[in-house]
Specification:
about 400 residues, alpha/beta, Rossmann fold, L-2-Hydroxyisocaproate Dehydrogenase, Chain A, domain 2, 3 domains, six-stranded parallel sheet, three-stranded mixed sheet, 12 helices
Length: about 400
């Protein structure tokens, strides 16, 4: 291992680094950064290293599976830093990567802004208001309709515990120019949702073209505001819209890539939470799927390409595919009943997952891997975003994950 002190930060590398000054002694305290090579556009920006193999293979799907990562020899000092969660990998081929070496996580409660207060937005807002007092300082709401924001500010302002009037975060109406004066921006805007009974089977992809145009506009606003918080894509299709936000924020006025916008780890898609919850719904009602409740996992996008694993240790491909099909079509069942399926997504993928994110706890969401936003179990830590590394993902399951990634690459 090679250690350096560079721009006020401590670095470690598997290979010698040119231009980083003389080598130093191994670092045993504080944060440590590992510069890694990577594509400036499709490579990850930064992440918490939780397995030595991630230093040699930092950007692909194999980072989810310890058995597929290369074997890497590291010294005791580096092993301790990884075990203690203090090692951050940074893609040194991305513009401005050096700024990450001195960036400090913001402490304390966070300010959350929500764009669009329709069915999903208002339900999500209610969840954050009631459950987010421990991590949210205030909530700003913005919508094209002043009448809608006035209504919800009025409604939310009248939700309080007796004699504990500051227990819940305050809600205020904010103008568009203040949208990115926050720590977490939640994109719930949508256009063109097919009505119940329309016969549209893939509702999510039906929405992509129109919603992508809206995302592009607000991605440019985030760029202009030099937004440093987390952009959360909740509108459908979640995963392609997350990538749209990332890509469009990094283009100049002529459409050229310059890497001056959102870093890939600043964007996350929030759609997997409800798929995981839907799988649990069926697992509670059919004993054949019961293993999911203690051993299962969910991977992939919010919709086509999703894979539900009944168990990691005792994976059954046929059983998992059956549970996956039930999960993917659950929204159609709600439409058959005669209602739009938005309450569970707004809470399981939205409010609950956002709160887990703010608390630094494990949750389901789409993070940047293999050049797309892939739904996995992850959490935000002081050392950066961490994706779960499983001891071994069965070949059949890993094949489904890879197929989902290829599908998402075709979408965008």
């Amino acid at each position: 291992m090679y250690y350096y002190h560079y721009n006020g930060a401590n670095l470690v590398s598997l290979q010698p680094l040119d231009g980083f000054g003389p080598e130093t002694a191994p670092v045993t305290e504080g944060r440590l950064f590992a510069p890694v090579a990577g594509d400036p556009v499709l490579g990850r920006g930064s992440f918490r290293v939780s397995h030595p193999g991630q230093l040699a293979a930092p950007h692909g799907l194999e980072t989810l599976d310890a058995s597929r990562l290369p074997s890497v020899q590291i010294d005791e000092a580096a092993a301790a830093v990884i075990a203690e969660g203090r090692l951050t990998a940074v893609n040194m081929d991305r513009p401005g990567w050096e700024a990450l070496l001195t960036a400090a996580p913001k402490a304390g409660k966070k300010r959350v802004h929500i764009l669009a207060i329709g069915d999903v937005g208002s339900t999500l807002l209610t969840g954050l208001k009631l459950l987010g007092g421990d991590v949210i300082s205030s909530i700003g709401i913005c919508d094209l309709s002043d009448q809608i924001t006035a209504r919800w500010e009025f409604e939310m302002g009248q939700i309080a515990l007796p004699w504990q009037y500051d227990a819940f975060p305050e809600v205020e109406v904010i103008p568009p120019e203040r949208l990115f004066d926050c720590d977490m921006f939640v994109f719930v805007a949508s256009k063109g949702i097919p009505p119940v009974g329309s016969g549209v089977k893939d509702v999510r992809m039906y929405q992509f073209e129109n919603n992508a145009k809206i995302v592009k506009h607000y991605a440019k606003m985030a760029r202009q505001a030099h937004f440093q918080g987390l952009w959360c894509a909740v509108s459908d299709p979640v995963d392609p819209l997350a990538k749209t936000a990332y890509l469009e924020s990094n283009r100049d006025d002529d459409g050229n890539w310059d890497g001056q916008g959102l870093r890939p780890e600043q964007v996350q898609g929030f759609g997997l939470g409800v798929m995981n919850a839907r799988a649990a719904y069926y697992a509670k009602r059919d004993s054949r799927f019961a293993s999911f409740l203690s051993e299962g996992r969910s991977f992939g996008p919010h919709g086509t390409g999703l894979t539900i694993a009944n168990s990691i240790e005792h994976y059954d491909d046929a059983l998992s595919q059956e549970l996956t099909d039930l999960t993917v079509t659950a929204n159609l069942k709600m439409r058959e009943i005669g209602f739009k399926p938005y309450v569970a997504p707004a809470l399981s993928s939205g409010a609950l997952s956002l709160l887990l994110t703010l608390r630094g706890e494990w949750h389901c969401g789409s993070v940047f891997l293999d050049g797309i936003y892939m739904g996995v179990r992850n959490r935000y830590t002081p050392a950066g975003i961490e994706t779960e590394v499983l001891p071994h993902i069965p070949d059949a399951l890993f094949g489904h994950i890879r197929d989902a990634a290829e599908h998402l690459k075709e979408v965008l």
